From TrEMBL, chains A, B:
The lineage of its organism: Bacteria, Bacillati, Bacillota, Bacilli, Bacillales. Residues 442-537 form the Non-reducing end beta-L-arabinofuranosidase-like GH127 middle domain. The keyword Hydrolase applies. Residues 539-651 form the Non-reducing end beta-L-arabinofuranosidase-like GH127 C-terminal domain. Keywords: Hydrolase. This is Glycoside hydrolase family 127 protein. Residues 15-432 form the Non-reducing end beta-L-arabinofuranosidase-like GH127 catalytic domain. One of its GO terms (molecular function) is hydrolase activity. It comes from Paenibacillus agricola. Pfam families: Beta-AFase-like_GH127_cat (PF07944), Glyco_hydro127C (PF20737), Glyco_hydro127M (PF20736).
Length: 654, 654
């Protein structure tokens, strides 16, 4: 019987020290600006005060049922940061939060600020909507990270008691509740708890939540009927939320329309989907259940071949924050929640460990450098929830859309539901963990960035040191320092975008086999061996599958992993009328003083001259085009120079 | 001082008998299918029963506050039809309705089925939303039409009493209410009442409603505060309707943000805007108030140069059924309510009478042959509310939009708010009135279609007979039969789309001056003189102003006044990947058996081959294109062969 064991082992964020280059800059801002700011925002909005149990019915600023998850994610981000940069003040803040959580924990282990304060008698009555297990999961991830970062076990112990309480209530056994959370998260968190504590009941509980999901009769239906409503048919909320009635079936909005192994397309809320699929991959890996991995692979193929933006964005619809249909990738009216792309990285990273297939790393890289990092400004203090691929600001002033902060075309200081900023912070702070894996054969190098890392092989330890200007330059140097000289494999990722490259070891070009997107270098490695990877990094004009109706006759520019866009500030208004000339050279230039230092692109383009139109709105085709120079900047860095038009996809003359 | 007198006089629908060609076919279906069906629908939905005052609080099927307007529009349409084709059964139906209206009229002249039955104490307390004056206006239009069609005065008398009641309540005098309706309509209806009764107080009241609109303090604010709510700031309706808070200012959704003479852009609800502007033009014409005409001209220019679809559609946003911003003309996510284009025809027709400028007739023709007739199927029994210029059906199955009947991409049998079908019916039944005007100089011919018409000049009467296959063919024959041979002008419209043409009189080509889009033929006309107009009608590739971001690099095909579209049934899926070849011939062919007989177009196109993509969603540009034959059909006739993709704008290779 097939089992789904991971052939690769992820390398912990603890072992990878980012010490230069692209990600170091971002981590520095994350640690010095973003993480401190997020604590302040939680204070301002009342999340910390609520944790102190100071809120009483009738008070303003009612605790939000998501707030515990913000706390959990913030602790997680802060823990990753702390592990690399000692910061007693930050550590004190976390310890104080842990004390508050301890004080708020109920006798039986239960913890939830909203239910503790706002609706004490109602706990566990609305798994569909109220996020109790989701919040528990995020607190668990925070607890695991803080324990691993500092060795302090108090929060982990609190969460163990909480998880034990959950385990006593939910499970397949008679007498236990056969429920699961409207927002997946607990599943992957329980696997982390299992990994760090060795308690198998956490793994079993995670597997239960996954196995139970989508079984009939639907738990959500039974639960809601017991509250006197039917959430699907007569939704207990305003009409404008009825779109939660997802067309793919009852409860599809929450991926609960079918048992997970029967799901063959990404549906419903995109962040929920990613967290669920990541949990499925975790349980597959830990239990060897190949049916879960098979389901992941079907879902992966459908998602990445039919509903993935070039930026790594996913989840096209702002209504319901969800997937729509195959090849539907609108640029202007879309959603692409930052959290969804982050969830995609979590899932991709887990799938990558099974067989070391570079296609997963390609998507991970696509999301990291583009649709995720677009989620925060260069200063680290403003955030996008929605990541559009085309913006015309008037649409948000005079358009038809009911605009909320989460749909704004300029980055916002915070959000009513503030999931994205702390999610970004924890991802950036732990970016090192995505760079390497090990296996019985040796080492996998997934991402390229300056770092020094300690990689444990079966009977050896290797210090790898990377030095590179990637993603701006394709030259990567890796120094290999094994504790003992030994023969092992180093698998170097050949990015999906790369069409020509050279590999050298100790200055000699070597001929290497490519296997699933990795150059496999097997040799006797000695202290101080130097690998050089020289990736050709020409500007590529990318086309989209013909069924994607919004990108036909258009191209996007990509160089290395970086997807580019055109902004009004560089190219004037009416960007949609700009076309590239198909045979024109495109120059790439590093501009140190622009947008924190980026490679920009310039090429010849053409556009019509509006001055000749004289009040006509339509005319028989006759207008001449003017030659212009157009400039592109990395998509992730857009909207850092004031509001304006932006497009990723631009017409190309044939 | 300038005054705004109309130099032209519209010719009544009574004098124009459509006796063949395009519009006869449509009128036949309108009379035999659409008008009878609409009566049945009103019966089914309860509108007739409500008029019988049979509804009691607690009963189901609560009367809708719009229902009286449906009755009024239906009577109007039926009256026009009746005048041309005697139909005792239909006349009996109208007379019965009139009796019911009489029975429901209050002592003081007030009439409104909703307030009579549902909320008797609350009349005139919510002009903002409850459409009492709007319903009154439609009943008045019905009354005028029925009186003119049959000479029967009962309904007109009823409405006179109602209008007198309104006049006693609203007006500039102290003690009267300085209010106006949330939905303009009463203004133009009062002018019709004035024209048919000669009672100047109706004209004065219309002028009052127009002058008062948008003055501060805002009537709607005062009114709503007196009901204990603030409609703008704390809307008294669900959150999803808060988009009625239009960004152009308080009450801009209802064109009440500014005095009408200060409004310089079409804003808010498109149908309301058109009815208001038509009323403004009426009052300008009847009072000579040039400031109202000036305002109309500013609004006209802004609308037609910046927010008019090629089909004559207007009002881009389904949220609020309203205008958005200049050059925002999305094809797929739009609205273009059928009623809004009908209102545009009303307004254009009025402005045309001032100076006989063909630009108004061009827009009238554009809307009539395209964005209005798309509102009904060929059988006359299903209707579009929204008229998209691009449809991908999956968007409505899996997309983000909360779809209601009014937004459906296939024509519907009826609607909750059923304004469009009877509006279409009354327009089609009265189409003759848009064909001619007279002036002190002679006759204006605005539209080309078979008809025989009696046109009264100052001291002569002329029978004109048109014979043509227009809009499929550009050859038009007009026989002129003056009662007395005389010298006068016949102004023949030179359509805006026409670039070459020939005019003959009695077989001899004549050289004629063009003035404001009309060929001016001055001569001594004798019985039996024959005018021939030969309009070159090549297929034109139309481009849009460069600021219209959704149409760049695309063309639409137009032949004569007919705008074409491409349907999936003729061209397979993925229409957006089809491109025209810029120098390929486009053949035009009349197909008698297709879509009731239409000219279709065929040309060479190209598209990418999806079979070579092999699971890729993105790739560096390399795909080859295939040559294909593509076929276009008239836009108005789309969606008559089952659901499928449709596009008007198609890429063109350069």
């Amino acid at each position: 019987m097939r089992t789904a064991k991971q052939k690769l082992s992820p390398v912990s964020w603890k072992e990878v020290t980012v010490n230069g280059g692209f990600w170091q800059e971002i981590q520095k801002i994350n640690s010095t600006v973003t993480i401190p700011l997020q604590y302040i925002r939680m204070e301002e909005r009342g999340g910390i005060e609520a944790l102190k149990l100071n809120w009483k019915p009738g008070d303003s600023n009612k605790p939000h049922h998501f707030w515990d998850s913000d706390i959990g994610k913030w602790i997680e981000a802060a823990a990753y940061s702390l592990a690399k940069h000692s910061d007693p003040e930050l550590e004190k803040k976390i310890d104080d939060l842990v004390d508050l959580i301890e004080a708020g924990q109920q006798e039986d282990g239960y913890f939830n600020t909203f239910y503790n304060l706002v609706d004490p008698g109602k706990r566990w009555t609305n798994l569909y909507y109220m996020h109790e297990l989701y919040c528990a999961g995020h607190l668990a991830e925070g607890a695991v990270a803080y324990y691993l970062a500092t060795g302090k076990k108090k929060l982990l112990d609190i969460i163990c008691r909480f998880m034990d309480h959950i385990d006593s209530r939910f499970g397949p056994q008679t007498g236990k509740v056969h429920g699961y959370c409207g927002h997946p998260e607990i599943e992957l968190a329980l696997v982390k708890m299992y990994q760090v504590t060795g308690e198998e009941r956490y793994l079993r509980l995670s597997k239960f939540f996954i196995d139970e999901r989508g079984q009939q009769p639907y738990y959500f239906e039974l639960e809601s009927l017991s509250r006197g409503v039917n959430v699907e048919v007569k939704a207990d909320r305003p009409r404008h939320l009825k779109h939660y009635l997802c067309c793919q079936g009852p409860f599809a909005q929450y991926q609960s329309h079918l048992p997970v192994r029967e799901q063959d397309a990404p549906v419903g809320h995109a962040v929920r989907a990613m967290y669920l699929y990541a949990g499925m991959a975790d349980v597959a890996a830990e239990t060897g259940d190949h049916t879960l991995l098979d389901a992941c692979e079907v879902l992966w193929k459908r998602l990445t071949e039919k509903q993935l933006y070039i930026t790594g964005g996913i989840g096209q619809s702002s209504d319901g924050e969800r997937f729509t249909f195959d090849y539907d990738l609108p640029n202007e009216i879309t959603y692409n929640e930052t959290c969804a792309s982050i969830g995609l990285v979590f899932w991709a990273h887990r799938l990558l460990q099974f067989n070391g297939d570079g296609k997963y790393a390609d998507v991970m890289e696509r999301a990291l450098y583009n649709g995720i990092m677009s989620g925060v400004n260069l200063e680290g203090d403003r955030f996008f929830y929605a990541n559009y691929l085309s913006v015309y600001p008037d649409r948000f002033k005079y358009g038809s859309t009911l605009i909320t902060e989460r749909m704004a075309p300029t980055r916002q200081g915070w959000f009513e539901v503030a999931c994205c900023p702390p999610n970004l912070a924890r991802l950036v702070a732990s970016i090192g963990q995505y760079m390497y894996s090990t296996s019985t054969d040796g080492i996998y190098v997934h991402l390229y960035n300056d770092n020094e890392s300690k990689l444990d092989l079966i009977d050896n330890q290797v210090i790898l040191t990377q030095k590179t200007e990637y993603p701006w330059d394709g030259h990567i140097g890796i120094t290999v320092n094994p504790e003992n000289d030994a023969e092992f494999m180093i698998a170097l990722r050949r990015p999906g975008w790369c069409q020509n490259a050279e590999i050298k070891v100790n200055n000699a070009v070597i001929d290497v086999e490519v296997r699933k997107g990795y150059w496999i270098v097997n040799r006797l490695w000695k202290q101080g061996d130097v690998i050089e990877i020289i990736l050709d990094m020409p500007v590529q004009r990318i086309e989209t599958h013909p069924s994607v109706r919004t990108n036909t006759a258009k191209v996007a520019l990509q160089r290395g992993p970086i997807v580019y866009c055109f902004e009004e500030i560089d190219n004037a208004k009416d960007l949609n009328d700009v076309s590239l000339v198909s045979d024109a050279d495109i120059s790439a230039r590093y501009e140190e003083d622009l947008l924190g230092g980026v490679v920009t692109l310039e090429t010849k383009g053409r556009r019509r001259d509006t001055s000749t139109w004289d009040g006509q709105l339509y005319q028989p085709v006759k207008s001449e085009k003017m030659d212009i120079t157009i400039k592109a900047v990395p998509y992730f860095a857009w909207a850092n120079r004031g509001p304006g038009e932006m497009v990723v996809w631009v017409k190309q003359e044939e």
